[in-house]
Amino acid sequence: MTGPFGSLRDYLKAVDELGQVLHVDKVDQDAFEATGFMYALIDKVGWGEAPIVSFNQVKTGGRWMEGPVIGNPWGRWQYEPMAFGVNAQGTNQRELYRSTLAKLETLVDEEGQWPAVEPTEISPEDAPCKEVTLLDDAIDLTQFPFLKTNPADGGPYINTGNVILEDPKYGRNAGTYRCQIKGPRKIGVNPERNQHGWTFLMDMKDRGEPFARAAVVLGADPIVFAMSSSKTTRLGQDELKVAGGFLGRPVEVVKCETSDLRVPANVEMVIEGEIPFDFEPEGPFGEMYGYIGEMKSENFFMNVTAVTHRKNPIFINNFTGIHRGFLTSPLEMTSNLNYRKKFPSVLSVHFPLQTPGYCFIQIKKMRPGDAIEIGSEISKTLKIAKIAIVVDEDVDVHNFTEVMHAVGSRWQPQQATQIIAEAGAMGGDPSSPTRGSGSRIVIDATRKQPDEGGPEVYAKMNRECLLAEAPDIFTHIDDKFGDLINGWKS
Questions:
Q1: pTM of this prediction?
Q2: Which of 134, 247, 325, 456 has its CA 20 to 30 A from that of 422?
Q3: What would the mean pLDDT of 273-285 be, rounded to a whole number?
């Protein structure tokens, strides 16, 4: 079965049929077994090769609870083409990812806009997320297997919830923000400063509104989740409409029980509520950098007014800082399109989320100074790009080894480095002296022209010489030895 998938369940079923879901009967998360399991798995096989993990029963808060709780749902490169309906056959994971980028590029119109399809509303009777409805005293979020992932976390968290907000000025927004379980009917809500959710809530506060109606959606299909989790859309664009464009059909939505918000209908759970404009402490929380983020003295919270869910819902836990958090191809394609418009030299921009803080930029260098100019602009405008490495067109930015080889063999630190003293930074960066602010480095790992202090003649690469003499060598090797090479398990 190939996507786009209409639900998380369809996607997980398709991956399971490929034999890429590892089922674990029971884990004691009060002893942090699930977290330790994920670390050990990624350490052994790498984040790009690790399967999805399904923990069928989890002990948390002193009680055994039925799952499943899913870890690493988006880890392998192969899951990207599956989710977007691209043929996912083959063993070269990076090539599969690039095939997804190529398909997404065909969806963009001449103005560089993603397709958008208006959601369609269905009746509550037809909505899977309405199979069970909990109101008033029946609501108790502590009865669900939301995990305290790290010992230093402030408590259990919903860390894959898509927070739905609506505003008369901006329309609808779906953003993925961590939500601390604060009680049976209360959760924290953490949009970072200047994220779209932050802008929505602060504008409502400044207008004097008493609270914001919100809904937290859990277990969305891969594309809706990717739209919510990445900076693919701009402020004022509806993530559910853009998700419909990627799906090739409208996202089905349903009206909430206690507000007029419309939310995706095929999800596992919806938590409805009101966000007052008072603040409470929240955190600490283990961030994507793999470090514990500090407790915030003031943060938003939500009073829960209703919970609806499927029978036997599936829970996704993001083991933050261990595995990839969402499908990244829409975010990457958006960056590629934006920077190609500004710099014709740009061929590809890649964020290796397994090593946060890095940005790899592939260019076809046209003149001296191209690499530093382009790298500087991208680094200053992308918060995640603390270390921007610019490489030539013959270097695969999706191959970490090739990029590091270019740094080692084409970069001279004194002549080909720029330090940017101050720029916006990711909120979770543990090295920032002030949250949201930091410095940058741009590394020009391209072949230097003589005008840039490079040699008069750059030596040829060994691989380049091999291909010049035997251009079909890799096709020949694949035909003769492919089964042997691809079947090897270390």
A1: 0.86
A2: 325
A3: 95
